[in-house]
Design a protein that fits this description.
Elements: H1 10-15, H2 18-26, H3 33-39, H4 49-65, H5 67-77, H6 84-100, H7 129-134, H8 149-154, E1 164-172, E2 176-179, H9 180-185, E3 198-201, H10 208-223, E4 230-237, H11 247-251, E5 266-268, H12 273-288, E6 291-300, E7 311-321, E8 325-335, E9 341-342, E10 353-354, H13 356-378, E11 387-390, H14 396-409, H15 417-431, H16 438-452, E12 463-470, E13 474-482, H17 492-497, E14 500-501, H18 504-515, E15 530-533, E16 546-549, H19 573-584, H20 586-608, H21 613-638, H22 642-667, H23 669-693, H24 700-723, H25 729-739, H26 743-755, H27 762-786, H28 792-819
Parallel strand pairs: 2-14, 4-5, 4-6, 11-12
Antiparallel strand pairs: 1-7, 1-8, 2-3, 6-7, 8-13, 9-10, 12-13, 15-16
Helix pairs in contact: 4-5, 13-14, 14-15, 15-16, 19-20, 20-24, 21-22, 21-23, 22-23, 22-25, 22-26, 23-25, 24-28, 25-27, 25-28, 26-27, 27-28
């Protein structure tokens, strides 16, 4: 009964040419069941007439109860490009005729019986298309004439559904990424420590707003035929670029200008804002029976050394009755006030201030609390769920830790959970840290891999747990049911595979531009996507924010200039690759500087000095071994992470070495010149190796200071040995005073590490600064005044001390803004 004048089936157009379709129509051709199944025009064939009638009545009942969804589903299969006016009027006449036939769907009606010997006569043969088009008796009735606008939006005229949740989902992620191999070759442990395969890369023309617009556009184009049916739009984020105007406000430009009755604003909370938006919107849908959209969008910007944690994405969810993923009303939450994750508005670093160990502990505690509460309040046994999806933090390694703990706390080892954990981790391992989108990308990853695995396609996976978490801390455990017959395909895997890989130089340029708040527009635009457009020279914080879609006739940049060239580096030689790495990576630079200073110290001791080297290196090895054992014991006893343990060992063992210098000086000055070298070389060698190994666990400025300080220290003290000269009592005292000048600072740092507040008061900061930097200067001035004939060695030691105190003073001044800040009350 569908005329080729206007509404040819989309499925027919995929398998037959227009001429073949017209020929089939004019000749009244028929297909048997095998033909229909082979062409995939039908999904199934009933074996009996009674079964066919039963399925037909179910379909009719569904259409009667869900007119909006039925229209939407039908329009997906219908082509509207041919003679739209004729198609509209003809469709109305067909619908009117069906509506007037009250006995059409009666139980005993046999009109649906198909007789292959009967030739089908076109329904409108007696009326030409022109007559149909101009018939004055046919009134064109608007689609919403039989429903008021409020009824259409809320669905109040139909029977309310009891099931609400996510009807459809679409994702956007930037079209560029940097591989874990590239990060690893630049000293960033993306794969070894974080478990990543790649992380997303974007520049200043993409932000949380543009990504949200791209995700919502895909959702509207693919799943929502009537934008007027949307009554709520809510956003979850922690990276809005506008501190006053919500991202939701920008998304309103995607809807018809006369459709302004859409509720909702942004929910801002670390990693949890998207879940809050989803729960709010589902509650609104239950109340009104209407449809809404939930958007999660974030950019996880990081310093270059923390690039393994960066990531970006936006997820748009169509929410309403009769969903694909039904979210049940029973849920439990765990909310606390914690200080494990901070993103200050004014900060010298891009990476959020994180206490990784504390944050992980809060996550595990919230998970334990929610699992226990879900069983106690609602008798929901988590172990009975077919799968469990949860928020993934900033890397895939963290998800593995949570997986092991989750299996331990539930009753028994749930079947297939290990495999499903791998499924849900797949997308995130290629995208990076996702903040508010993490839970929903993991859910999509699970659904995608389930449908992709031929061995699991028929595995019954209906009930799942959904655990949302945000630092600060917020957590909610929900349980849901997957209705597989209502699902749709997910194209995120194709998006990930089609991304272009960029070089480390390109990423470094983007990060540096972010720090300077400049317009770093170096990545090419892709057609049909939304971007922020900034005039040349305009800061990222400029008040004008213009987002528009990239048009097809706009010229794109050459992607080949940005992509990591893996083949070219094979023929550049090892030396070239090392020099290229040295130029780009601070950790490599620090290692090279320390190695240079260390080698010079060894050469000066063995070849240029008059000391006994055998005892020197034997004692230094003993000091190195003792220091290693002490640090191992500290890490084992306190168990607070590599970074904190290193700092504690550095300050504690350093203080012990300083005290040893003073004791030896007070007992025998002649032994100082022999003993100090072994203590110094053994401890500095271990300390240098340690902070290179724990590089990413230490504060950025501390790493820079240690690199400069230790490299110059090896060079300067090695020069002392090479120059030689008479070691007078005054020279020995000067060396001991210089070597122990950090004692007061180390002791105050120990206090700060154990008190968890650091040196924060002005009096403490000023007192340490004066003691540390004035003691040796005063002594040097005394030598200059009272000693007429100073040797070259004495002048060298004096100059070395003043140089290092100047460096120490510079870095102390850099940290003064934080040291002088008042501690939180």
């Amino acid at each position: 009964g569908i005329s080729p004048a206007g509404q040819l089936s989309q499925l027919l157009r995929e398998y037959l040419s227009p001429s073949e379709i017209m020929e089939a129509y004019l000749e009244n051709s028929h297909w048997d069941c095998d033909d229909l199944l082979r062409l995939k025009i039908v999904s199934s064939v009933a074996s009996t007439k009674e079964q066919a009638f039963s399925e037909g009545r179910k379909l009719a009942l569904f259409i009667a109860r869900n007119p909006a969804q039925a229209v939407r589903d039908t329009l997906h299969l219908v082509k509207l490009k041919y003679a739209a006016e004729v198609a509209n009027e003809e469709s109305w006449l067909i619908a009117k005729k069906i509506a007037e036939s009250q006995d059409l769907f009666s139980k005993n009606n046999d009109t649906f019986f198909f007789d292959s010997n009967v030739k089908r006569i076109p329904a409108k043969m007696h009326q030409s298309s022109q007559e149909l088009k101009t018939d004055s008796n046919v009134k064109r009735i608007p689609a919403k004439m039989h429903q008021s606008s409020q009824e259409w939006k809320t669905g109040s005229s139909r029977q309310r559904s009891s099931a609400y949740g996510i009807i459809a989902m679409e994702v956007y992620t930037p079209g560029f990424a940097i591989s874990a191999d590239t990060l690893e070759s630049n000293g960033i442990r993306a794969r070894r420590k974080q478990g990543q395969e790649a992380v997303a890369v974007w520049d200043s023309k993409e932000d949380s707003i543009s990504m949200a617009m791209n995700a919502v556009t895909k959702l509207l184009e693919r799943h929502i035929t009537d934008p007027y049916s949307i009554g709520r739009l809510e956003v979850g984020t922690e990276s809005n670029v506008d501190m006053a105007k919500s991202i939701k406000s920008y998304l309103m430009s995607l809807f018809p200008s006369d459709h302004v009755d859409i509720e909702g604003v942004d929910n801002i909370n670390a990693c949890y804002g998207g879940t809050a938006a989803l729960l709010n919107t589902i509650s609104w849908c239950r109340e009104t029976g209407g449809y809404g959209i939930v958007v999660t969008t974030d950019t996880a910007d990081m310093d270059i050394s923390d690039s393994a944690w960066r990531g970006a994405s936006a997820v748009a969810m169509y929410v309403g009755p009769d969903p694909w993923i039904e979210i049940h009303p029973e849920r439990v939450s765990c909310f606390k006030n914690t200080m494990d994750f901070l993103k200050p508005r004014y900060s010298n670093q891009i990476t959020p201030h994180m206490q990784t160990r504390e944050s992980m502990n809060h996550y595990i505690e919230a998970l334990d609390n929610c699992v226990e509460s879900m069983g106690r309040k609602f008798s929901v046994d988590t172990s009975k769920l077919d799968a469990f999806i949860f928020h993934g933090g900033l890397c895939a390694t963290f998800m593995k830790i949570v997986e092991r703990h989750l299996v331990q706390i539930v009753n028994g080892r749930p079947k297939n959970w290990d495999m499903y954990f791998d499924y849900s981790r797949y997308f995130a391992s290629h995208m990076g840290g996702l903040y508010t989108s993490s839970l929903f990308v993991n859910l999509l990853s699970f659904l995608h891999r389930m449908s992709e695995d031929v061995h699991q396609k028929h595995q019954i996976t209906n009930t799942i747990g959904l655990f949302a978490y945000g630092s600060g801390s917020t957590a909610t455990l929900m349980h849901a049911t997957i209705h597989h017959d209502r699902g749709h395909t997910i194209d995120l895997s194709d998006m990930i595979e089609k991304r272009s890989l960029v070089s480390f130089d390109t990423l470094s340029e983007i990060v540096e531009g972010y720090k300077s708040e400049g317009n770093v527009d170096i990545l090419p635009r892709s057609q049909a996507l939304y971007y922020r457009y900034l005039p040349e020279g305009v800061s990222m914080n400029d008040s004008g924010r213009i987002y528009r879609r990239q048009m097809e006739n706009e010229e794109l940049k050459d992607k080949s200039l940005l992509v990591e060239n893996h083949t070219a580096s094979r023929y550049n030689g090892k030396l070239y690759k090392f020099l290229n790495l040295l130029r780009r990576d601070l950790r490599t630079q620090a290692s090279a500087g320390l190695m240079t200073g260390w080698i010079w110290w060894v050469i000066a001791s063995v070849l240029l000095s008059d000391f006994q080297t055998a005892d020197l290196f034997t004692n230094a090895t003993l000091v190195f071994t003792v220091t290693l054992c002490l640090n191992f014991g500290i890490n084992l006893f306190f168990g607070r992470g590599n970074g904190w343990s290193y700092l504690l060992g550095h300050c504690l063992i350093g203080s012990m070495i300083f005290v040893a210098y003073a004791i030896i000086l007070s007992t025998s000055r002649s032994e100082v010149k022999n003993v100090w070298r072994s203590l110094y070389f053994g401890w500095y060698t271990y300390d240098s190796l340690s902070f290179i190994v724990f590089w990413h666990d230490l504060p950025h400025r501390f790493r820079i200071f240690q690199s400069i300080h230790h490299s110059l220290s090896f060079l300067c003290t090695g020069t002392w040995l090479a120059v030689g000269g008479k070691w007078t009592d005054l020279t020995i005292i000067a060396v001991v005073v210089w070597l122990t000048s950090d004692l007061w600072h180390y002791l105050s740092s120990l206090y700060g590490l154990f008190s968890e507040v650091g040196v924060t008061r002005r009096s403490e900061a000023g007192y340490n600064l004066k003691l540390e930097n004035l003691v040796f200067a005063s002594y040097g001035i005394g030598i200059y005044i009272f000693v007429d004939d100073m040797s070259v060695l004495a002048w060298l030691i004096l100059g070395t001390g003043l140089l290092f105190d100047a460096i120490d003073t510079y870095f102390r001044l850099l940290t003064w803004p934080r040291r002088l800040a008042k501690p939180p009350q």
